[in-house]
Amino acid sequence: MIRRVEFDEGLDELKALLLEMGERVEKAIEASMRALQAVDGDGARKVIADDPELNRLEERIVELGTRLIATQQPVAKDLRRILVAFRISNDLERMGDLAVDIAKAVLRLEGRELIKPLVDLPRMAELVQTMTRESIRAFLHENVDLAYKMARDDDAVDAMYGSVLQELFALRPAGARDSSQAMLLSFVGRYLERIADHATNIGESVVYLVTNKRPDLNR
Amino acid sequence: MPVTAVNTGPAQARASRTLIEIDRLNLYYGDFHALKNVSLDIPERAITAFIGPSGCGKSTLLRTLNRMNDLIPGTRIEGRIAIAGTDIYSPEVDVETLRKKVGMVFQQPNPFPKSIYDNVAYGPRLHGIRKKSRLDEIVESSLRAAALWNEVKDHLKRSALSLSGGQQQRLCIARALAVEPDILLMDEATSALDPISTLKIEELVQQLKERYTIVMVTHNMHQAARVSNRTVFFLNGEVIESADTEKLFSDPSDSRTEDYISGRFG
Q: What is the pLDDT of residues A11-68, one digit of tens each?
């Protein structure tokens, strides 16, 4: 078996960049949720300040992938590896933006106390972080079983989001400030649910990479 | 009806009928077993590309289609090749007539050291056409079909050797078309040409498939991907995979095909 050194090194670099993006996204979700629970404006500002690095990583992935297509003319699975890297980097960039949205919600809450202790949202966030980590692992190891697990986890996240909304709607807010806080928290639930959808997209990309078929895991 | 060894392509809307049927073909050069049990259907009015590493048998198979291998001493063939239902190795088949129906273009452009006109008129004259007006018609229509007419129409008496390599190759295509073949075999027909001439030939071949069945051998996998409708991958004298080109280059069924097209074959 001949090893196409330059191409394989390029693919390794793509994988490393996606891994770095995935780790940064996971940290951004974690940090934004920690900032939410502590209503910590500084923590939220750090998440927002770190986001441009994710955009830069996405640009590097697009540049590298484009160069590999132009100079190495990959076909079949080699080509899909690059096409999928483009899509995954786009999903990760959007996931980072949603973590920023959570951080922005924290800034709106700054200086106030939470109307209730958060229980379901942190649990949702924990599962969403796991999905982020595992979706990237599924890509790196071209693991279809792990990719399909995204669909099941996404269902669990959707169910949690449903109960978060129910609970927030059931609250009897004491005033306008409480209502707006309930709304912000429901937005956070929505952001987490969207992040899980993007992780599920990554799972779909992995299935496409390995099988050349396009499943719909986001149903 | 022969069974195609590996036929992974999905049924396609444009699927045309089979023109060439190769059934359990074995070919030996002396002791060397060059083609091993090859079964393959080649569709009419489409471009079929043979790919594979050097020595895999793809050119050998191409040359069996107009019995060029007959010229190589020690060649032995078993199995059957039928064109439009006729076994081309049966004793009744006249090889000259076969080669009129199955034209061939080679790697190196090989025009005769004659005028452009006489190169194209050579075949028709050989087959008995003498009338000047008829020959003029054939020369013009063949040069037009080979996308060369506009470049040479004012210099038909010039030596063919004065043309560029790409023009010479198109002249050889015109020469092959002048005897009205059904099938055009192209053996590495662009490998000696620059990229612009190569693209011209590729465009030409796309037009020609409307009227002719084209079988091409190419070392350039991307050319096979760009130009052909069907691709056949050969390895060590065997057909490993035969599929619609789109399928073979995006989702090959055999890991050896994937290794080869991905440049990971060694």
A: 999 999 999 999 999 999 999 999 999 999 999 999 999 999 999 999 999 999 999 9
Residues of chain A with pLDDT under 50: none
- 3 state DSSP class of B131: coil
Total structural domains within chain B: 1
B81: domain range?
A: 18-110+165-261
ipTM above 0.85, yes or no: no
Please say if the pLDDT value at position B9 is more than 50: no
Nearest CA in chain A to B264: A2
- pLDDT tens digits, B218-235: 999 999 999 999 999 999
In a domain, A217, yes or no: no
Q: Which residue of A has its CA nearest to B249?
A: A76
Query: What's A178's domain CATH number?
Result: 1.20.58.220
pTM: predicted TM-score of the whole model, two decimal places: 0.84
Q: Could you tell me if residue A219 is inside a domain?
A: no
Query: Are residues A3 and B264, on separate chains, in Cβ contact within 8 Å?
Result: yes
A8 touches chain B (CB under 8 A): no
Is B258 an interface residue toward A (CB < 8 Å)? yes
Q: Which phi-psi region, left, alpha or beta, contains residue B74 (left: φ > 0; alpha: ψ -120 to 50)?
A: left
CATH of the domain at B228: 3.40.50.300
| pLDDT tens profile B80-120 | 999 999 999 999 999 999 999 999 999 999 999 999 999 99
Confirm whether A180 is domain-assigned. Answer: yes
B71 in any annotated domain: yes
B146 is a domain residue? no
What local confidence, expressed as pLDDT, does residue A214 receive?
87
**How many domains does one find in chain A?**
1
Residue B138, amino acid = I
Residues of B in contact with A77 (CB under 8 A): 258, 262
Report the pLDDT averaged over residues B158-177: 95
| Total Cβ atoms within 10 A of residue A209 | 22
A72 in a structural domain = yes
Which residues on chain B are in Cβ contact (under 8 Å) with A214? none
Q: Do A74 and B249 touch (CB under 8 A)?
A: no
CB contact under 8 A, A76 and B259: no
Distance from CA of B257 to the nearest CA of A (A): 10
| H or E segment to which residue B81 belongs | strand B75-83
Residue B129 backbone dihedrals phi, psi, to 5 degrees: -85, 125
Could you tell me if residue B229 is inside a domain? yes
Q: Are A75 and B250 a contacting pair at CB < 8 A?
A: yes
Task: State how far residue B24 is from chain A, nearest Cα, in angstroms.
Answer: 30
Residues of B in contact with A207 (CB under 8 A): none
Q: Does residue B233 form part of some domain? A: yes
CB B63 within 8 A of CB B69: yes
**Å between A143 CA and nearest CA of chain B:** 18
List the domain range (segments joined by +) for residue A73.
5-211
Distance, in Å, from the CA atom of A29 to the CA atom of B259, rounded to the nearest integer, reads: 40
C-alpha B197/C-alpha B193 separation (Å) is 6
Note whether B249 contacts A77, CB cutoff 8 Å: no
Task: Compute the CA torsion angle A213, B224, A81, A50 (nearest 10 deg).
Answer: -120
